[in-house]
Amino acid sequence: MLKVLDAFRPETIIILGDFADFEPVSAHPRKPRSEQFLTADLVPIASALAELESVGALHKIYVMGNHEFRLERYIAKNAPALDGLFSYDAWVQDLGWETVPYLETYKLGKLNITHDTGTAGMNAHRDAAAAHMGSTIIGHTHRMAYEVRGKVDGVPYLAAMFGWLGKADKITYLHNAKAAHWVHGFGIGYTLSNGVTHVQPVPIIGGKCVVEGRVYSLK
C-alpha cells in the first residue's frame, strides 16, 4: 500500500477506522498471549501514521472506529473520574490529522465515509449506503466488496468496503476461522469537479496488487 501511495501521490488520505486496536480495554475475551498495556498500541500507531504522512497528502483524515472507541467507553464505564485526562482523538490531532468521531460521517464531495452504521458482515456496505441514502464507503468488516446500483432518477450510488491491512496471526479475540472472509486491501479514487468520487478497490493477493496497470509487490 505504501508503495502505491508513493507513486499515486493522493491529495487526501482517509483511514477508515480500527487503525488502533486498544485490545487491553476490549470487551472481548482475550488469549493469554495478548498485550496488556496501551502503550504497546500507541508507539506503533505513531510510527505507522508517520509512514502515511511521508506520502505528502494535503489532507489527512482519520475516521475513528469501534476499536478506537474502546478506550473512551472503558474510561466512561470504569474510571469516569479520569475522563478528559487522555483523549486519543486529541493525540491523533496533535500528530497532524483531522479526526472524525466514531459513529459520525465524513463527506468527500457526494461520498459518505464512515466506519460503520451499526452492522457487520457481507452486507454491511449495503446497509450503510441505505442508511445514508447515497454513496458510502465503510471500514469495520475487514471484507472487500464494491457495488454500484442504479436509481429511478438515473443517478447510481456506490456501496463499498475495502478490506483490512492487519496480520491474521495477531488476532486474539475470535476464532481464526472467522478471519477466512477477510481480505487484505485498500482503495483509491478520484473526486471530479461535480463532487462524484470514482473509487477502485485494490485487493492485495500474495503480497501483490495492481494499480493503473502497474504491479506492486512486497519484494
Features:
219 residues; alpha/beta; 3-stranded parallel beta sheet; 5 helices; 12 strands; 23% helix; globular
Question: How would you explain this protein's 3D organization?
Answer:
The protein is an alpha/beta fold and 219 residues long. It has one domain (2-217). It has helices spanning 2-8, 39-53, 66-78, 88-94, 124-132, and strands at residues 12-15, 59-63, 98-100, 106-108, 111-114, 136-138, 144-149, 157-162, 185-191, 197-203, 208-211, 214-217. The strands form 4 sheets. A 5-stranded mixed beta sheet has the order 4-5-6-8-7. Strands 1-2-3 form a 3-stranded parallel beta sheet. The longest helix has 15 residues, at 39-53. It is globular and about 55 Å long.
The helix count comes to: 5
Query: Taking Cα atoms only, what radius of gyration do you get, to the nearest Å?
Result: 18 Å
Mean pLDDT: 90
Shape: globular
Total DSSP E strands = 12
Regions with little confidence, pLDDT below 50 for 5+ residues: none
Strand order of the largest sheet: 4-5-6-8-7
Count of the domains: 1
Element order: H for helix, E for strand: HEHEHHEEEHEEEEEEE
Q: What structural class do you assign from the helix and strand content?
A: alpha/beta
Q: In what range is the share of β-strand residues?
A: 25-35%
Percent helix: 10-25%
Distance between the termini: 13 Å
Largest sheet: 5 strands, mixed
Ordered list of secondary-structure elements with their pairings:
Elements: H1 2-8, E1 12-15, H2 39-53, E2 59-63, H3 66-78, H4 88-94, E3 98-100, E4 106-108, E5 111-114, H5 124-132, E6 136-138, E7 144-149, E8 157-162, E9 185-191, E10 197-203, E11 208-211, E12 214-217
Parallel strand pairs: 1-2, 2-3, 5-6, 6-8
Antiparallel strand pairs: 4-5, 7-8, 9-10, 11-12
